[in-house]
Amino acid sequence: MSPLYYFHLFSGLVLLGVTVLIIIKKGLTPYVRPFLLLVLVNLAGIAAVIIETSEYSSLWMPGYLLLYFHVAFLPYAWHMMGSQWGLDQKEHSRRDAIISRLFLIFSVVLFIYLWAIRGVDLELADGHWMLNLGDWKFWISAYSIIGLTAGVYAIEACYRSSLGLSREKIKRSFFPLLAYTIGLLGATTAGILYGRITDLMITVLYLLFALVSVPVARHYILFDPTHDGIILTRRGIYSSLVVVLFGVYFLIIGAVGELLVKYNLDEGLFFSLVILILMVITFMILVVSQTLRTRLRLVSTPKAPFRDRGMYDAEWKEFAEEVSVTLNMEAIYSRTSRLLHRLLKIDHSLFVIKEPAPSENYTLYTGDGIDRGIPRQQLDLLSDWLYRLGHAAEVSMLAEKAPEETTQIKALEGTAPFEIFLLVPLIARQQSLGFWGIGSHSSGRRLSSDEIGFIEAAANPVALTILGARMTDELLVSREMDSFHRFSSFVLHDLKNSVGMLSLLLENAEKNISNPEFQKEALLTISKAVNRQKKIISRLTEEKTDDKLSLEVSRMSDLIAQTLERVRLDTIKTISTRVEVENDLKVIVDPEKIGSVFDNLVMNAVEAMPDGGNLVIQSPVNDKPGMIGVTFTDTGLGMTQDFIATRLFKPFSSTKPHGLGIGMFQSREIIRAHRGIMDVSSTPDKGTEFIIYLPGKD
């Protein structure tokens, strides 16, 4: 077997796999059928080559039929795929359908004719198989070039019309298809010149298509022409002119080569003609492009204000700078409206902005202070269409270009306080924010192409400014919510400590309720808890002010005694408490806030010793000059070093089933606010020691 046989076999297997995958994923939907037809045509060609180069003579006749089918229907299949690839489903016009039928009719006629006269053949020459196009080489090659050029015309127009995210969705298959087209054009040009295509070139083409089919199949599986399809623009049609002219170039080269071979003319003359034709084609591109640009202007107005390019750039820069410094939607609209009036003499405009989730509305900004909200379902189709168009569109043209969106256009016009002339999509960072409605010139005339170009250029900085304003608002709201949650969490933690003290009191009430001394202490504890909760409530109801410290000189022993009195450790019989604090130690602190820190440390120690244990509070600890230290040591469950390092002081992280996870974070913040230090050491199952250093008073 020739090595080329295995390449053919590999290509065929890849195409079969691609076919099965697409059918499983997408079925035989109208959008995928043209590509599956192109795959089928190439599979027929691969099968024909394998059969005709084999020794099984009984299969040669079916092999010829497959070969004729491949040669006759390849241009039609390519054109069908190219005319629908990447486009919105509404972009298929009646003219496209007529052209496709003409291609189909010609392909059927060519297939029948080749079958009748055996017009093409695979023949052996110099030890290599070649595709001999016979007497019809020029017409077959010319038809192939026309079909290929028509397909590339459609594909390139679609790609040029796409913008942003839409282009990202199609470019992975665009460039492979372009590479495959170049290979086909080269093969068909060789067919015109020599009437034969070598086995190596045929193998390379089949292998190239097999490799190309993988990213193209991905496109057909992921792409939805209803929602992702590209809407053609006039710019796309203009850019495709180059493809057409180069298709004509290949056709002329082939024809000239045919004449040179027929009349046995000098090859030097051939290459001279090639260069001459290339110069002519280049000249045509330059001349026709200028004419086409003029014809494709939306309107030609002699008084257009931006004929001078330098003035256009200066005005656009001024517009971008003016708009970009605004971060409020009403202000953005107001400034944009004033600039449009001053620079373009446009008196009326509006923003139609899609509000972020969970809102289900578009908001219209018109500068009259009226809040106009339109449900999304009334404008989503129009907004999506403009996003995929990517350019400004005259309202008068949309009835023909986007008939399904006509109802939504009328709904918008019924809401707008002026007649809208132009709609411009507002796109920022590949996302649609809505669109921009523009009125006519103050004189009543239509806007010129230069004015529309200015508005299109301005739409991008306007969209970016709107997106920036939205992100700034979201950031401010997020920070306010974060501040609120942090503040409320601190309040809840203080309430939790107060409830904890009352819970300890209730646990001992059943045993000691008849004890007059206990009753007296219980009433005192309840009174203090109520006063504490009143202070907490007042913090919630008072206007928010800076959380400043009320510093005063306090005895360390008094602070500890007040904590033990609030917590009532003496009522917990399973915990032994020992206090070793000198009476003359004075610190400069906010007694209430430091008291909440000590309360938290003692309550944590109690919770860490569910089965009882020892709590030792000692002071002084004299290893920090100018500061007085106090230790809280328990014999509880303890903590690992990893927990201390990663979670102990992390807000909203708690090991307790009903803990808020902010006690230690809040305590450390309070100590830091006093310019103090909090240290901790712990051993699992042995206990924990907290050391608090506070500024001392000599």
Strand content: 5-15%
Overall geometry: elongated
How far apart are the first and last residues' alpha carbons, in Å?
A: 103 Å
Tally of domains: 3
Largest sheet: 6 strands, antiparallel
Q: What topology, given as strand order, has the largest sheet?
A: 6-5-4-9-8-7
Q: The CATH topology of the largest domain is what?
A: Rhopdopsin 7-helix transmembrane proteins
CATH architectural group of the largest domain: Up-down Bundle
Structure description:
- The protein folds into 3 domains: 230 residues, Up-down Bundle (Rhopdopsin 7-helix transmembrane proteins); 168 residues, Beta-Lactamase (2-Layer Sandwich), CATH 3.30.450.40; 147 residues, Heat Shock Protein 90 (2-Layer Sandwich).
- Helix 3 runs parallel beside helix 5.
- It has 698 residues and is an alpha+beta fold.
- Strands 6-5-4-9-8-7 form a 6-stranded antiparallel beta sheet, with helices on both faces. Strands 11-13-14-16-15 form a 5-stranded mixed beta sheet, covered by helices on one side. A 3-stranded antiparallel beta sheet has the order 1-2-3.
- It is elongated.
- The protein is built from 20 helices and 16 strands.
- The longest helix has 64 residues.
- About 5% of the residues have low confidence.
- Helices cover 61% and strands 13% of the residues.
